């Protein structure tokens, strides 16, 4: 089975062709980072126009690089939400048009589900598994019971963790998107212990038994520290390292609670897996912290390779494979959705 996948929900135009036996035949991502650096963040209207400018060419190139014609495809998958609605509509309409013109099934992919299924593109990870989804727009802990079946166990009261990285990085004068730049700055800190002593941050709502996230307080704390600190390169590197370490500890603190809950809910599950996905899962300090935490709880940490961690077409194509295998094709009348919680998947398709 060969599926074309189209991703346009934020600021990456991603197109890929993936097979049901886990081969990525082509995988193209055009980042709009330079376009959005001038404004320090994604302007939805500009993002949608940029997708429109480049998508046709990328689709033709991806199909060509896969050594296929449109007629060889078994289906066309596109992100139909959640995301910036202008961009979502561009990719969705392109996908529908190809499906209609070549008489192929259309697969309406939920962007969050695509992130949660991406590690299965690499290897067979049996359901159920625990998912920590950390991106620019979402911070959630979910149980994936099957394709289309998710239980939401935790989300954020305010900012997503990626947003917290990006906004704090912006305050530090780093370019957009802040996450990877903050990570790079933190790597210049030679002594993390000293940095944490010099610039202490605390895990939000520590001690609360409720599994939930909140990141706006950390962002405010960063503002306050920056206001009373000399912005020397050493101080900024130490500040970035301490801040990043607190974000990593926060995620692993809540993941630990969720792993305990998972063991109680699924007592017979052998070799449980914790999947970490979404753009922030590219962060090495976070991966290391979560890896240690998962092994302590008898879980194996599974992260997508870095190139599939941030938004891309291969994850959409793979989600399309999984949907088609279950016969979950979508009518061409399906609408783009700016909000599309994973728990609503069952009702929709
Ligand atoms: O999943 P994604 O590509 O797009 C959304 O669906 O939001 O995630 C983008 C987010 C941004 O906030 C970006 O700063 C963050 O992922 N990110 C990182 C790293 N790479 C990307 N955050 C921390 N460290 C990184 N290395
Ligand atoms: Zn994403």
Outline the structure in words.
The longest helix is centred in the C-terminal third of the chain and has 33 residues, at 233-265. The protein has a 5-stranded mixed sheet, sandwiched between helices. The protein is globular, with a radius of gyration of 20 Å. It is of the alpha/beta class and 349 residues long. It has 2 domains: 2-118 and 308-348, Nucleotidyltransferase, domain 5, CATH 3.30.420.40; 125-303, ATPase, nucleotide binding domain (Nucleotidyltransferase, domain 5, 2-Layer Sandwich), CATH 3.30.420.40. It is 46% helix and 18% strand. Residues 111, 115, 135, 278-279, 311 line the site of zinc ion (ZN).
Quick rundown:
This protein has about 350 residues and is of the alpha/beta class. The protein folds into 2 domains: about 1-120 and about 310-349, Nucleotidyltransferase, domain 5 (2-Layer Sandwich); about 125-305, 2-Layer Sandwich (Nucleotidyltransferase, domain 5). It has helices spanning about 35, 45-65, 85-100, 110-115, 120, 160-170, 180-185, 190-200, 215-225, 235-265, 285-295, 305-310, 315-325, 345-349, and strands spanning about 1-5, 10-20, 25-30, 75-80, 105-110, 130-135, 140-145, 150-155, 275, 300.
Secondary-structure blueprint:
Layout lengths: L1 E6 L4 E8 L4 E8 L1 H5 L6 H22 L9 E7 L3 H17 L4 E5 H7 L1 H4 L6 E6 L4 E8 L2 E6 L6 H11 L6 H9 L5 H7 L17 H12 L5 H33 L7 E5 L6 H13 L3 E3 L3 H4 L3 H13 L19 H4 L1
Parallel strand pairs: 1-4, 4-5, 6-9, 9-10
Antiparallel strand pairs: 1-2, 2-3, 6-7, 7-8
């Amino acid at each position: 089975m060969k599926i074309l996948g189209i991703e346009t929900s934020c600021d990456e135009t991603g197109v890929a062709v993936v097979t049901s036996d886990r081969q990525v035949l082509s995988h193209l991502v055009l980042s709009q980072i330079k376009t959005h650096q001038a404004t320090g963040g994604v302007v939805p209207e500009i993002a949608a126009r940029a997708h429109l400018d480049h998508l046709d060419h990328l689709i033709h190139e991806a199909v060509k690089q896969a050594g296929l014609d449109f007629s060889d495809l078994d289906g066309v998958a596109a992100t139909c939400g959640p995301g910036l609605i202008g961009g979502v509509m561009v990719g969705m309409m392109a996908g529908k048009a190809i499906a209609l013109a070549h008489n192929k099934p259309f697969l309406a992919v939920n962007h969050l589900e695509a992130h949660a299924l991406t590690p299965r593109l690499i290897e067979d990870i049996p359901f159920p598994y625990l998912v920590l989804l950390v991106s620019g727009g979402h911070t959630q802990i979910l149980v994936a019971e099957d394709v289309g079946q998710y239980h939401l166990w935790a989300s954020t009261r305010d900012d997503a963790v990626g947003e917290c990285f990006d906004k704090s990085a912006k305050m530090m004068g780093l370019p957009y998107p802040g996450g990877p730049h903050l990570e790079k700055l933190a790597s210049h800190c030679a002594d993390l212990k000293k940095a944490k002593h010099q610039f202490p941050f605390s895990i939000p709502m520590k001690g609360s038994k409720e599994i939930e996230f909140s990141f706006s307080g950390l962002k405010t704390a960063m503002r306050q520290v920056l206001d009373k600190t000399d912005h020397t390169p050493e101080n900024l590197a130490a500040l970035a390292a301490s801040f990043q370490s607190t974000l990593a500890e926060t995620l692993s603190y809540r993941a630990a609670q969720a792993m305990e809950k998972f063991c109680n809910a699924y007592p017979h599950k052998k070799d449980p897996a914790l999947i970490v996905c979404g753009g922030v899962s590219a962060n090495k300090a976070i991966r290391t912290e979560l890896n240690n935490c998962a092994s302590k709880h008898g879980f194996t940490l599974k992260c997508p390779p870095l190139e599939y961690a941030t938004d891309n077409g291969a994850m959409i194509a793979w989600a399309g494979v999984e949907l088609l295998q279950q016969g979950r094709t979508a009518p061409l009348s399906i609408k783009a959705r700016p909000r599309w919680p994973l728990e609503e998947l069952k009702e929709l398709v």
